[in-house]
Amino acid sequence: MSYRFQKLYEEKVFKDPVHRYIHVRDQVIWDLIGTKEFQRLRRIKQLGTTYLTFHGAEHSRFTHSLGVYEIIRRMVDDVFSGRPEWNDDDRLLALCAGLLHDVGHGPFSHTFEKIFNLDHEELTREIIEGSTEINEILRKVGDDFPKKVSEVIEKTSVNKLVTSMISSQIDADRMDYLLRDAYYTGVSYGNFDMERILRIMRPRPDGVVIKQSGMHAVEHYLISRFQMYWQVYFHPVSRSAEAILQKILQRAKYLHETGYHFNYVPVHFGHLFEGKVDLDEYIKLDESVLLYYFQVWKEESDQILSDLCQRFLNRKLFQYVDFDTQKHTEKFAELKELFLEIEIDPEYYLVIDTISDEAYDYFRYGEEGGKKPILLLQTNGDLKEISRKSELVDGITGKKLFDSKLYFPHDLIYNNPDEKKKKVIEMIEEIAGAKRR
Amino acid sequence: MSYRFQKLYEEKVFKDPVHRYIHVRDQVIWDLIGTKEFQRLRRIKQLGTTYLTFHGAEHSRFTHSLGVYEIIRRMVDDVFSGRPEWNDDDRLLALCAGLLHDVGHGPFSHTFEKIFNLDHEELTREIIEGSTEINEILRKVGDDFPKKVSEVIEKTSVNKLVTSMISSQIDADRMDYLLRDAYYTGVSYGNFDMERILRIMRPRPDGVVIKQSGMHAVEHYLISRFQMYWQVYFHPVSRSAEAILQKILQRAKYLHETGYHFNYVPVHFGHLFEGKVDLDEYIKLDESVLLYYFQVWKEESDQILSDLCQRFLNRKLFQYVDFDTQKHTEKFAELKELFLEIEIDPEYYLVIDTISDEAYDYFRYGEEGGKKPILLLQTNGDLKEISRKSELVDGITGKKLFDSKLYFPHDLIYNNPDEKKKKVIEMIEEIAGAKRR
Amino acid sequence: MSYRFQKLYEEKVFKDPVHRYIHVRDQVIWDLIGTKEFQRLRRIKQLGTTYLTFHGAEHSRFTHSLGVYEIIRRMVDDVFSGRPEWNDDDRLLALCAGLLHDVGHGPFSHTFEKIFNLDHEELTREIIEGSTEINEILRKVGDDFPKKVSEVIEKTSVNKLVTSMISSQIDADRMDYLLRDAYYTGVSYGNFDMERILRIMRPRPDGVVIKQSGMHAVEHYLISRFQMYWQVYFHPVSRSAEAILQKILQRAKYLHETGYHFNYVPVHFGHLFEGKVDLDEYIKLDESVLLYYFQVWKEESDQILSDLCQRFLNRKLFQYVDFDTQKHTEKFAELKELFLEIEIDPEYYLVIDTISDEAYDYFRYGEEGGKKPILLLQTNGDLKEISRKSELVDGITGKKLFDSKLYFPHDLIYNNPDEKKKKVIEMIEEIAGAKRR
Amino acid sequence: MSYRFQKLYEEKVFKDPVHRYIHVRDQVIWDLIGTKEFQRLRRIKQLGTTYLTFHGAEHSRFTHSLGVYEIIRRMVDDVFSGRPEWNDDDRLLALCAGLLHDVGHGPFSHTFEKIFNLDHEELTREIIEGSTEINEILRKVGDDFPKKVSEVIEKTSVNKLVTSMISSQIDADRMDYLLRDAYYTGVSYGNFDMERILRIMRPRPDGVVIKQSGMHAVEHYLISRFQMYWQVYFHPVSRSAEAILQKILQRAKYLHETGYHFNYVPVHFGHLFEGKVDLDEYIKLDESVLLYYFQVWKEESDQILSDLCQRFLNRKLFQYVDFDTQKHTEKFAELKELFLEIEIDPEYYLVIDTISDEAYDYFRYGEEGGKKPILLLQTNGDLKEISRKSELVDGITGKKLFDSKLYFPHDLIYNNPDEKKKKVIEMIEEIAGAKRR
């Protein structure tokens, strides 16, 4: 039998706390899970630095990727299969794209990508199409199969339906991460009725639509998402840890560029410091390697690198105050000066972190450049955009998510402050106070 | 106010998926959590290699330690406080011992301890009494306070009541790990009614006893424990990963001893290879460091070390068959010979793993050397051992937990076997078949 | 010791699926639970006819009343106790008012009250202040204690703080019913983090306020409430059952008034048919008595009464279409005529049911007659209305809940319709179609 | 299309708190649910008097019956369908038998059956085969179909496989009631992993067997069952309520037989008082009718009937002490005499209730008359009885469930006792004391 349709002799079942069980019947999926590129996701946390705020959130991208696969599998096998709008030839494509959609993520990915100017979607494509174990398996399905999979993930595929299953405003990726992140952090916000949503999804050529009868379940999902953003993803303490992480990598890169002699040469960063990516090197980079370097850099003679590393490892994070990016430009400049006077380098110890509003306008409707809306399938076959039917969605459509904070090392400034430090404190209080409503 | 009684200005609350919230009011506890020795527990998994079987089980000893602390806190503040048998002076001792009971654990601790001949209880004592941040804080409570805490953890304390809260047959440690491991693996077995058990615990000079009215909740706890052992803790696949881990460390040690030239000198193992422990070095050793070494050793020229490391990282585990330690001694010797003939070193590729029965006879009663039984407090004040009152506990008392498996690299033997390998296969099948009932 | 402060020898614990345990320590509370007026609540369902839509929702007002008591108890004993703004003399008042707030409810209460022109709050007052077992117990606490309790329930008490604990926009009553109704129906919407909300409630002279840090938990609660209204409380199928119930009682009253000779004289309705309430009679009326009458009325010779009763008992409910109260006045008049022509009495078989918007504008803010807003306590002590701080609450503030449906007996009209019935069908389709968006 | 295979135009979905959703696709099932005989189960509680101990347990046999149907449906459609050992012609038979297995239950069934010498299995047969709405529907499937369904329920069917799905040691009936009763009472004991068990069930001609790999899930189920018996089903307080119930019915029957003139003639008991059953009358008898009679009998002049009814309605239950049926025969006779002396009729106020051991030896193995064991399917196809493989099951096999209690009206005896009553108290204490271990 062709490899594409090959089934395992016995179904493999993974116990999963979120979906109870994850079922694997296809040889291709089983083989993909066994690749070193996929197993590497076990060493990359799903939520980056969030575990320093919510200690339970230590789960990896590996578990999330299995979860996305399982949701896609249930969509296809339990709901879409047999419907005229669904072509079962797309089944394996959807499963593979779901499983592999995050395979290009690096350690603490958002920060890492930022400093080294990487793009995890681009890297995902390279891992799928490049010389890897994953590619070898996908090619056994068909010569153009790796490309097809990566196009779905990159949202350039002509197959809009399969694409929408993995990336749209209500897709397998988001549904898994909301449920999973809620489960591991322990917050109750992310808990919507996925089983219901799956049952009322219907395949259409342009993407998945939702039966009108399930509108309330979708409302619940959207509100969950909204609340998870504020409660978990944008939590100011996790952002403090991210700020430190970013400054560690920035310092290490700077030291490398300026010829600093490392005790432990960071060979694993390979060509990243030069702005180049080598796929083999990249795949070896995971969070245990990063944490190892933080351990050894903690012993380096460079005070800034050493201090930042011990802060991250021992969770001595920066403190924060609200910051108004428009009002406080001048004050920030002054504060930088004051930092220099007390001999704390503001480049590394004074960080503005701003949360953009993108996360939320995803269901704003009909605007130029707006994302594709969630469509409700009426009993007469019409499609209606959800905010026209739901008072609740209408109420939150267009609301902006925005938050800006100023991070600084409270301990270095507030402990037994001299006159100069007192001035710094005064300025910080002023910024904080001005923002207080 | 004395440091011992100092309260935080505002209670700190940690969101916890198992206990919902963990409450910290005491300055001492807050300070202990902030030490580098305690934060290090974030980088040591609670269940070692179990995440390679149950992918959700990626939680750390950090979360478990907070959980044990919280259970102790509830015992003391919600149940014992105000009862004549409870001395509130012991409150902080109990809280600290609960929080710190696992602080000496190393990376993948059981295997690690075995290879390097370590004892995590001894190391816990050293971390508490040695020159550490933890010790500094505890000493501020009282000069003899560190010693008191470590004595409780080592079960040598004269305070039997506090000791029993942390280590007995139904203690805060076990209650937390059963609930937590069940939560993170996703199995339903470990889910007993802890709230009920806490409410019916009563302090007595020799240890905590349980009111008769709560017997069924305790039964449930004991059965949960029994089932978790078979289902999770003794899972043959996790033991396969442990076998490989053990062989990696054994090989690295051997190579070090025989003067092998490592590309990446394993400096972080410090004096461990010489059988000595340096506390500072030990504290720096965590699972990210180990995983880092596995990454670099994967590239070493020593084939055995390299192969074992890639097996662990990419989850290419050993296969297993049931093994009868008594019947198969000879066959095992023959099998070793056959392995040599096919040039697979049996020292590293043929592993017998035997699960001892200790885990289970913990509530066997009255026997020489038997552990202290669980006592039920009757309405008339008498104490009765639980197996005398409970048919269910009586039914399982004395049952032996025992399992022995033979691990081997299936891929190296079964893929396109030549004549010699076929002989190996035959022998393995013989061993497997003989055990089949 | 005075009865007010008398404690049970041993705390009584009720297993509760929503709050896990309900704890009773006070003799007064224990005695109140044992009264016949309180035990009667076991025979009145919390959600009336909802069990005909959500089959799991068979829980009684008894369980809800215990739940409200328990929430009040936790507020007082775990959160308010010891705070300067809380007077522990009010403890028993709050507990009793919480426990007894629903004690005046009749069977299928809203419908029942409507037909017989009753007011359950008035009846609650009479049960508390009249000659009942409950009154006897409360008077043992103090002569004016019954009056104090009923004033809190009627919201005429000078004690605004205690009143707000039981009836405000975020009170023990609402928190219990949302959680409980979600649990028993099985929907996931009502599941907010009550434990968190309790912890951040603070007593103030004018009512309970909420710490700013818990805003997201309150958002979650408000959204839960919003969703439970649409999903459960306003479900059109339950309203169909309610319409039939109403028509049964209306018909029985009419028959009584017009001198119809009942086979089973409805003596238990006592003076209700004459518009008078006798407290003793009222207390004997519960849902088992009503259901008994429906059983015997099913055998009555009056066709309308008999048919409606079998519809209710055997769940042969009315069908419905959306109805526009403004547009369809004329059509409705015509439809009534058509009903008469096919010899179906529109007085009993054609029902418009309109859901008012009251349920939702409860957190509209600052308007004339608007209810008291939810106030957030800032770190500096200021109070801010929640919709000014929360984008989410702001988004739904002022949204109207409104729904109107037309109910009719589908079976009598659509099965083998003759020409006249076809006209009725046409008219119904017209009404339905006109509303379709 | 033949009625047997007719599908609903759209699947109907019931929200269920235990199984999340119950799915109905078959017209036959939908029609059966709509019959008056099935709807009647809404007015019969699943756990009889248990709600007087666990207030949450107010759920009806209606919800349980739907649950059993759903489990059978999942077995058939998700697990058995397509396997050679399963004949899909049996699908509808299994679904109908599952749905209808409890349809003959009377109000508070066990007590009711005992007093009136009824057999609910016999009554179930009559309802299925007699002149009922249910029978009418089943006959449309086939003339012999009603008989086939009732034979499965009565365990006289030649179809052993389908029979075992509904009644065996691990069947849909037990699985639903354990999960459901645990959910509604709120106890945690009954919570096993049904999804897992379903997945590993395999059809065999003689009944369902279980794959060896799922042994631990079955262990968990058996232990759950064991604990639910002790914790819920045999709870002494529920048995007190049952004792009163029994005595009410016994007294009413006695009064009827001795020509007592009832104020409200209990016509609804019809011929039951004469030991005859009329199916039409029986179907009208439900718990609301019984509770109605208790309300009116409370007002009867017969003191015993009146007192017992108010006890049941107002939950003034009997107290109890342990009773040794062998040791205390004489004491019991004496106690009866003493009761007569204090003018309390021991026939109604002194009740011995003994719990037999049947519930538990269900998995005793191989003994004469022993029930069919649970069989585990080995990988080589062999079947092994579970207690031979499981230490846990072996440990509890053969354990006896046995409990005997003496019930009496504490209030009538202990409140201000005179000399004679003191003697009664003495005797009760003696019996109680003798049993104390």
TrEMBL record, chains A, B, C, D:
SMART domains: HDc (SM00471). InterPro entries: dGTPase-like (IPR050135), HD/PDEase_dom (IPR003607), HD_assoc_2 (IPR045509), HD_domain (IPR006674). SUPFAM superfamilies: HD-domain/PDEase-like (SSF109604). PROSITE patterns: HD. It holds the Pfam family HD. It comes from the Bacteria. Gene3D superfamilies: Hypothetical protein af1432 (1.10.3210.10). Residues 61-178 form the HD domain. PANTHER family: DEOXYNUCLEOSIDE TRIPHOSPHATE TRIPHOSPHOHYDROLASE, DEOXYNUCLEOSIDE TRIPHOSPHATE TRIPHOSPHOHYDROLASE SAMHD1. This is HD domain-containing protein. It comes from Gottfriedia luciferensis.
